[in-house]
Amino acid sequence: MGTTEFVIAGLLPKIASDLGTSLPHAGLLIPAFTIGMIVGGPVMALATLRLTLMAALTVFALGHVVAALSSSFSVVLAAWVVTALATGTFWAVGFVIVTAATRPAQATRAVGVMMGGLTLANVIGVPIGSLVGQYTGWRGPFRALAVLAGLVAVFVSRFIPQTEQRAEILYGPRYTLCDRVDCGWRWPPPF
User: pTM of the entire structure?
Assistant: First the structure.
């Protein structure tokens, strides 16, 4: 999941050329993915954690397949946003699962291991994905990421235990340091 959000930068010239659009227009894929990730966690976290994680991986894989098969920039952009929704959901739910699966004293370490995987995906996956994309075209890394996500979804379905725990979406005021110290921020905003 960590490779996807950054590998696109190295593939933008090939995407723009292949889809008949300008490089700045193809560059819209980057902020579109970011917006999708921000929205993804709360939008997709509607079922049990395991089911939500499997759904996120499946949507992620399908988004890559649709993008890889399309010859339309608009379809690629829409598939990319859907993929980003799944990515945001994966990270949000994944962190909940790893902390719940460990003893409280080990929760920080579990999150650290997960972040280590994200770091490896960026440090190793992004350059490899960009390199592969230079030789196979931009669709090659998309296909590879779809296959990997499908394999991980199978792994999750086999090895992550089913629980009734669900992600909880909280709305309303949040309590922060600003509640104790006057830092000028107020929630809800005064408008």
Answer: 0.80
Task: List the alpha helices (DSSP H) in the chain.
Answer: 2-19, 23-26, 29-44, 49-69, 73-100, 107-120, 126-136, 139-159
Query: What DSSP state is assigned to residue 166?
Result: B
pLDDT range class, residue 177, cuts 50, 70, 90: very low
- Contact call for residues 177 and 187 (beta carbons, < 8 A): no
* Burial (CB count within 10 angstroms: exposed 0-12, middle 13-18, buried 19+), residue 106: middle
| Cis peptide, bond prior to residue 188, ω within 30 of zero | yes
- Taking the C-alpha atoms of residue 41 and residue 111, their distance in angstroms, rounded to an integer, is 17
185 by Cβ neighbours in 10 Å (0-12 / 13-18 / 19+) ranks as: exposed
